[in-house]
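Q: What changes when S-adenosylmethionine is included in the input?
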Amino acid sequence: MSRKLFVKTFGCQMNEYDSTRMAELLQDSHDLESVDSAEEADVILLNTCSVREKAQEKVFSQIGVWAELKQARPELVIGIGGCVASQEGAALRARAPSVDLVFGPQTLHRLPEMLRQVELDRRPAVDVSFPEIEKFDSLPTPRQKGATAFLSIMEGCSKYCSFCVVPYTRGEEWSRPLDAVLAEATSLAEQGVREIVLLGQNVNAYRGATDDGGEADLGLAIHAVAAIPGIDRIRFTTSHPLDVSESLAEAFAEVPELVSHIHLPVQSGSDDVLRRMKRNHTVAEYLQRLKWLQQARPGLSVSTDLIVGFPGETEADFQATLDLVEQVGFDHSFSFIYSPRPGTPAADLVDEVSVDEKKARLRRLQQRLRELEEGYAMSMLGSRQRVLVERLSRRSDEELAGRTENNRVVNFPAPRSLIGQFVDVSITGVFSNSLRGKVEPSEPLRDV
Ligand code: SAM
Ligand code: F3S
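A: The predicted holo structure follows.
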């Protein structure tokens, strides 16, 4: 009987991608079968996030729960990967001695040898270095079950925003060669994938080497992935405003497979705060870049990330953020209270805004973001949407669920044979977290 692996993931989509790769790798090397609960597993891995303090604290309480399992079953192997592991390194074992394995986002491909060391030599294994090039070369070809798949095309971040740990935990920006990206996308398409989400912490900083000694940017990569037979929908995330280029605008103008949506974090609507965040752009520059994209693709919807309560943020700065939200009309956005991260420059700034004030600002902001999101959903009522059917609906076996281009879940009655296909659906109902629809006869893909 094969032994069992449980992988739990906190954090971003890049972590989700990495977790899937880890499970495939250990299935090949150790014949470990993935299961859904830690109680059944012989090896447990936690892929962690340290972007905010709360996420980091969750890691240690999770390890505490698993340490109890290990007391009852001392042969249980516990491994911690991702950004907390990268930041803490060997110190993580000092704080949590039940942990056997510590690996970073760039060393997960070394898991098989690390697991061998733990199981055969009974020695803990710690490796949180950044041997960038190796990672993707050492991973097996992804195996895919659904119609949609993540594909990491670049790693790390070299922007060093003053509040963010990512450049320290994931290393500098590094792009996979274009050929490697296309080979992975082709293999996914052959396994029935119809939608690919191109991933990177700064995915539009992608600069992948090409066969002829040149370099491909994200715009070119999108064109090339769209040309793969079977791939009919492309998303990408997350983008940085500074790396929005004419070439990306061209992709929006020329590639119908690219969805009419971009997630473009702005963080604040105040130039003063943006300067102290080291974002290296102003609000006007952000709006200018957005305009290029919206001119290339009229109706492009935009979501964003916002931070409230950055050190020194005044009521006027916060009001400027609310004004920007109004001006752009963001859909489906994320907002957070600033969380000081050890080792980042902003952690040393004097912070006079009270916790209560920060919480009140977050409530005001989220209230407005929610209203905008609901407004968008309401405006979809009666419209016709192309939906990629992903699975049975959670409400009923007679219904299917899929996503629209702007990433909303739609439930509709239809036969199971449509799972994995695109269908046209007219929207007949709007609920707080989903839409309801009715299948319509299909029309050809949009002409852009
Ligand atoms: N590449 C993206 C960009 O262009 O900004 C950001 C990736 S970051 C890991 C995801 C989001 O987490 C950021 O956009 C930011 O809003 C939030 N974030 C990062 N550091 C944070 C901190 N110290 N406190 C609160 N939120 C933070
Ligand atoms: Fe973080 Fe800024 Fe990079 S938010 S991931 S340092 S673009």
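Observations recorded in class: The pocket of FE3-S4 cluster (ligand 2) is lined by residues 157, 159-161, 164, 166-167, 201-202, 240 (CB under 6 Å).
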